[in-house]
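SAMPLE LOG
Freezer: B-3
Tube label: C17
Construct: single chain, 435 aa
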Amino acid sequence: MASILVCATPAHGHIAAVLPVARHLHGAGHDVRFLTGRRYADRVRAAGIEFLPLPEEADLDLDDVDEAFPERAALKPIPQLRFSLTELFIRPALAQVRAIEAAHAERPVDVVVTEMMFIGAAALVRRPRAERPAVLTLGIAPLAARDPDVAPYGLGIPPSRAPFGRLRNRVLGAVAGRIFAPVTRAAVDAFRAINGSTPERFSIFDVPGNTDLLLQFTVPGFEYPRSTLADNVRFIGPMSRTAASDQPVPDWWGDLDGGRPVVHVTQGTISNRDFSHLVRPTIDALADEDVLVVATGGGQPVDALGPLPANARAAAYLPYDRLFPRLSAFVTNGGYQGLHFALEHGVPVVAAGTGEDKLETTARVGWSGAGINLRTARPKPEAIRDAVRAVLVRPSYREASARIGAEIAASAGLTGVDRAIAHLLGATARPSEAA
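STRUCTURE (predicted):
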């Protein structure tokens, strides 16, 4: 059994993606500690796992990011992504590494299991392997990996089958290098402060180069093909199927079985302070359609939605493992985990999001054929209505989603995590044994 330190950025979506892995490793008998924000202490301990708090300077409130960083909310998608990468993920890296070092000093760590945006772990990888634990990264957002076959990450541009596709990608790469130069400089400065040296080659958009092993929480059918994919990348499928939800159902739950197509809409758990972006327009767009619209507030009070039409229902949270088998369509701003719930159950998607990694997630929805990408975070009601009608009527969308769902059913899941831990423990001497 190994000594494992699980690290997660203090945000609901990150915790929700990583906690099933921590719970599984703990259940398998490993010594597991979980390093994250204090707001999640009770949730971690409820899983039977030892909780370690992040230092205050790394314990940001990313669940209320627009209130904590009001200047971010006013930015356009690309500047907003630059701001988020720099201020929310790179700036805390030094404090994150110091917390990992403190945990290792208290009880030697064999493997650091981290999600891809916990940048302190990427800095740790720059140290000689004999001087640090192994690092296993969980890909909880679309794969960020440099490759001549794909456009630079963060632009939301799908691959091109045209002969000039690679030339286009090189040109875009040069442009993206300038666009994200401030992010790269901030990361290099952070890594120099952490390790005392400048990394020779670094890109925050090349996750395989920033870890010993990357477990991507998807399947190849929902990821762009690459001819030079690093050999430390494993596709293991989403973690959405790992456990049943204990979320209670609302009193209107029986309405889901009324015979009408059920359409679920959500803005996730971060970009959900203003329901006028997607949730309310979807409710209004479908008010006269023969469907049942089910909205979630991502934890926000649903009173903010205002009066609901007769064919709409709402709740702060819903048990997705019980909801998605009943769905006919899913309208989303592009949260990675929610998308995979839909794909797992063969539900076609209407995607409308541009913040954080959502330019990339929504682009994959359109590219894969599993749904329609509206290419905006604020779609007009008529655009939503037309897209929902299309995914309900045209079988190709449901067929593409079901095809990906079959890949998910056959993927390794938590077995892939076990294999990865065994591989890393066998690769080199374990720090706890050498101590």
